[in-house]
Design brief:
The structure holds two protein chains of two kinds. By secondary structure, chain A is of the alpha/beta class. Chain A is 44% helix and 18% strand. In chain A, the strands form two sheets. In chain A, strands 1-12-6-5-4-2-3 form a seven-stranded parallel β-sheet, sandwiched between helices. In chain A, α11 links the parallel β10 and β11. Chain A is elongated, with a radius of gyration of 22 Å. The relative contact order of chain A is 0.16. Helices cover 74% and strands 2% of the residues of chain B. In chain B, a hairpin with a 2-residue loop joins β2 and β3. In chain B, α2 packs parallel to α13, α4 packs parallel to α6 and α7 packs across α11. Chain B starts with 12 loop residues before the first helix and ends with a helix. Classes of the chains: A alpha/beta, B mainly alpha. Chains A and B meet through α1, β3, α4 and α5 of A and α3, α6, β1, α11 and β4 of B.
Chain lengths: 381, 326
């Protein structure tokens, strides 16, 4: 009896830890996806998208976030207003931390006090609770990413009713209109990120060769747009590069076995593209296992493990990242526009950066506003 | 160990206090302590604002309802890991049926999900003698996949005003419908658990299964029943999320499993059966809701909130379970 209880306890502990880990894996981009999203329906591909540029949810043309400017009089007015802010994030990651840091720094410069910061762990119900809780502190502005556009319309309603200025990252609640319910949307330049990744791959292969795409096979706006832009650009700009395999994945932890299978099936492979850095780690592991030094890897979003591989002359040739810190700064500025009654751009985008071995330190700083870690510096020497 | 017994005439308060297990009072002391600390530390941050306190009650409703089901399950010595997944599937099935066939089919379809999942769980546990941990772990994966598949990751809006009003967005005499649901489940759950033969049989099955069988208790029927109750509670939670958010999505309830188990255990229900309390689970749920709320209002960063929440839960569980180890 006692023994069986111990077994049940151990099993329960395993179950709880499994459950706790279930939302851990996520693209580093502007919104995270669940680690176990379902595959796209058979016969279609989530990256079969006709894409020519980054546009807003209602077709808005993008405005660079660098166009958001506040003069001394604006800053003085903001400081005098004693405004407050809440940051309601969808998840936690290196990317979110950088965005948050950028927003905190800018709010600090503008004299806007940050009262509350939350993480919804990708749960729409949790986010609705967090909006309610944050509203108890009556913030003047809220910035964040709505986990689910449909239910977010109701979840953010208390803030809309209270007249709180809302600035969203990437997603917008269904039915919301700029100027009425929210001030602005700020996001990555998704198309540009995919395009620059394709150009980096083309350059790394000298304009010819065979490439495999390992893409996130779930309906997920951020990765779908970037992957589609990669494929469109590579096909259009590099006619001598052939995409010989397109392999979807839903769990980034399986990337090593998928990459191994790709390498076995396509012995003349010259390059592999992956949707973001975590699966890229799996690709690098698969290449190391078979001592493959021929295949070049290009991926998106900064991850220190992949950066170290690139710095030490490994298979990684380029990482395309966004200016995450500036995204946060741009969100704070857009919120300030709302407070001042200035007309904010409906859809502001941050620049995409191509980081190669030649500009690692500079690219890392521009993206995350941080120095490369010691391991990367060591690998660069 | 608690010995299950048929309901008898209630002893006097003094007698009950003298013979009471001190661990069963820690949750109430903990609740008062945490409330007092937060009230003092966050008095300028809106914690004591009536609207904020009311929000805590509303936000904890789905957890409280699932906790009622979980008390029954844990009391029989079983566990149901599938409740978070049932929340999402019930919400989606209900929202899709509501959209296509109207209010009553929408409500029934959502509730049927929990009942069917609970029934399958119960039958697998009792007829095939499989451990509930493994059965419901497998079911959790299966249901999560179905929930993602059923609408291909698309959220489903709920625009039926009566549905939304009944299930979380409306109010009666300025009291949210959520509170009526929470009260209904806690009162019915408490009555069944404490004052009926069903409750006594649940405890007996969890305390000593052989003795329960020998004394004629239909243990299998009890276990199937509690799994169905747990599924039904999770379904209701899913419907309440849908009504409150005016839509359903596959990620609803994904974080609820741990919270429900924590609320129930903090409340004084033994993880391995034979002892439980519905009122304690309600208080456990409110403690966790209060913590979530207070730590945000305190202006802590996400990681600081997680550390503080983890530490407080550890202390609460240690205090609650301390007597069990003696």
């Amino acid at each position: 009896m006692h023994k069986s209880r111990l077994v049940v306890a151990a099993a329960a502990a395993v179950a709880l830890s499994l459950s706790a880990c279930s939302t851990g894996a996520a693209p580093g981009g502007s919104s995270a996806a669940p680690s176990s999203a379902p595959a796209a329906p058979a016969g279609s591909s989530v990256i079969d998208i006709d894409i020519t540029g980054t546009t807003g949810p209602n077709g808005e043309a993008p405005t660079p976030i660098s166009d958001l400017t506040l003069n001394d009089a604006d800053v003085a007015k903001l400081k005098a207003g004693q405004y407050t802010a809440a940051q309601l994030w969808h998840t936690s990651s290196q990317f979110v931390t950088a965005v948050q840091d950028g927003a905190n720094a800018e709010f600090g410069r503008l004299g806007i006090d940050v009262l509350a910061t939350t993480n919804a762990n990708m749960d729409a119900g949790t986010q609705a609770n967090q909006v309610q809780t944050a509203m108890a502190k009556k913030p003047s502005v809220i910035i964040g990413l709505p986990v689910d556009p449909t239910s977010a319309a109701q979840a953010f309603q208390p803030a809309v009713t209270a007249g709180t200025k809302l600035v969203f990252l990437s997603n917008v609640p269904t039915g919301y209109t700029q100027g009425k319910q929210y001030t602005s949307i700020v996001t990555d330049d998704l198309y540009q990120m995919g395009k620059q990744a394709a150009e980096a791959m083309g350059t790394a292969l000298g304009g010819k060769g065979n490439v495999a795409m390992m893409f996130y096979n779930a309906k997920y706006y951020v990765t779908n747009q970037r992957d589609a832009a990669f494929r469109t650009t590579l096909t259009k700009e590099f006619p001598n590069i052939k995409i010989v395999a397109e392999q979807g994945f839903t769990d980034p932890n399986n990337a090593t076995s998928i990459a191994s299978a790709l390498l076995t099936k396509n012995r003349d492979l010259d390059g592999i593209y992956t949707s973001w850095s975590q699966p890229a780690q799996g690709v690098l592991a698969a290449l190391r296992t078979v001592n493959n030094t021929r295949v070049k890897v290009v991926t998106l979003d900064i991850d220190d493990t992949v950066v170290v591989d690139m710095a030490s002359g490994g298979a990684t040739q380029a990482i395309v990242a966004d200016e995450a810190y500036n995204l946060g700064k741009g969100m704070a500025d857009a919120a300030a526009y709302g407070l001042l009654g200035k007309k904010a751009p409906p859809f502001a985008v941050a620049n995409a950066l191509t980081i190669t071995k030649a500009n690692i330190a500079d690219g890392y700083r521009r993206s995350l506003n941080a120095d490369v870690p010691g391991t990367v510096q060591k690998a660069l020497k | 160990m608690t010995t299950a017994a048929a309901p008898v005439a209630a002893p006097s308060l003094t007698t009950r206090l003298r013979h009471a297990d001190p661990s069963s009072y820690f949750v109430y002391v903990g609740f008062v302590l945490i409330f007092a600390v937060m009230a003092i530390a966050l008095h300028g941050d809106g914690f004591l604002d009536p609207q904020n306190l009311y929000n805590i009650l509303l936000q904890t409703t789905p957890i409280t309802i699932m906790a009622v089901g979980a008390v029954f399950v844990l009391s029989t010595g079983e566990i149901d890991l599938s409740i978070g997944a049932v929340v999402a599937l019930s919400a989606l099935v209900s929202a899709v049926t509501l959209r296509d066939h109207g209010l009553v089919p929408g409500l029934l379809a959502g509730l049927a999900v929990g009942v069917v999942v609970g029934l399958v769980n119960g039958l697998l546990i009792t007829k095939l003698r499989l451990p509930s941990f493994l059965v419901t772990l497998g079911m959790m994966g299966l249901i999560t996949g179905l929930a993602q598949r059923v609408t291909n990751l698309q959220a489903v809006p709920s625009i039926d005003e009566l549905y939304n009003g009944l299930l979380g967005s409306g109010s009666i005499a300025r009291i949210s419908s959520l509170l009526f649901w929470a009260a209904l489940f806690v009162l019915v759950g408490h009555y069944l658990y404490r004052h009926t033969r069903v409750g006594a049989h649940v405890l007996a099955a969890g305390d000593n299964i052989r003795a329960a069988r020998v004394s004629g208790i239909k243990v299998d029927r009890i276990k199937i029943g509690v799994m169905v109750a747990s599924g039904l509670c999770a379904s209701v939670a899913g419907l309440l999320y849908t009504g409150r958010l005016h839509g359903a999505t596959y990620s609803l309830g994904s974080a609820d499993l741990l919270t429900v188990i924590a609320a129930v255990v903090i409340g004084g229900t033994r993880l391995f059966g034979g002892k439980g309390t519905i009122v304690g689970a309600l208080i456990g749920s409110l403690i966790l809701g209060m913590l979530n709320n207070g730590l945000i209002l305190a202006g802590l960063s996400d990681s600081e909130q997680q550390i503080a929440r983890g530490l407080i839960i550890l202390i609460a569980v240690a205090l609650t379970l301390r007597e069990d180890k003696k």
